[in-house]
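Lab notes, practical 5.
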Amino acid sequence: MSSAAPSPVMAPAANEKPSVQMCKGINGLDKVVLREFRGSSVEIYLYGAHVTSWKNEHGEELLFVSSKAIFKPPKAIRGGIPICFPQFSNLGPLEAHGFARNRFWSIDPSPPPFPVDSSNKTYVDLLLKNTEEDMKIWPHSFEFRLRVTLGPAGDLMMTSRVRNTNPDGKPFTFTFAYHTYFSVSDISEVRVEGLETLDYLDNLQNRERFTEQGDAITFESEVDKIYLSTPTKIAILDHEKKRTFVIRKDGLSDAVVWNPWDKKAKSLADFGDDEYKHMLCIEAAAIEKPITLKPGEEWKGRQELSAVPSSYCSGQLDPRRVLQGS
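Output from the prediction step:
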């Protein structure tokens, strides 16, 4: 990591270099703050390697975290970007979404070399290894490395590397998702482009398989779907904020779309009754075809998030052009 920076409550000076800082977060939990000199920032809690904030150069929060989120282990933090590993949802013997999101990660002392030039980017490398307690519920030895990067334009990149370190020669299999909660103005005014005509599994109908109809996905009730064989780019168009989120992903063929709507929201203790109106989860994932690694093998899954101004609500933006040109 680079040298320490001023307190995270201070706005960076115009000439300040990108910085990485360790500090205390809610309830004294350790977190890392990445700052880009134009003003964008990212906060990552070591508990769960959990990104809880991503702000643009104007200081606007781009991720949703519930006002009722519980920043206290062993409860996972509600919102931001939880990491689902080694199991997505309840599709297996483990607790829902696995255990990576409620374990304490460490700063990686020896991160692997990355092929991209990182000289103009601010990043932190985190590491999770299995514990004896983990072995009791998931009997595999692994190393999970995560690099969180804040690009010069304020883009947020997350690169996961999972390696099988089993000494007994046994392979293991896992599913995975970046469970990203985006902040939106009004869920009823949001549309998602890039998933039209694709097959999906509907979690609200016993994961029955359907084909998406229509030109875009809009929201008027609870949604919990796993879209299959998805493109590398997906766009969320927020009419009211005139903002488009572009999700780019690699090594993650699926995409989960989730909003709990009113009834489900009220059943979640760590979620405000009306907060469903201001969030949308689009999750880059590997679910339908689980990842299998032999000892020594490594899997890599990456997502890059960017927020760009759009004039879609005045009919001037072609969302497909955004997808193709971003």
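Observations recorded by the TA: The longest strand covers residues 279-293. The domain at 19-325 is CATH 2.70.98.10 (Beta-galactosidase; Chain A, domain 5).
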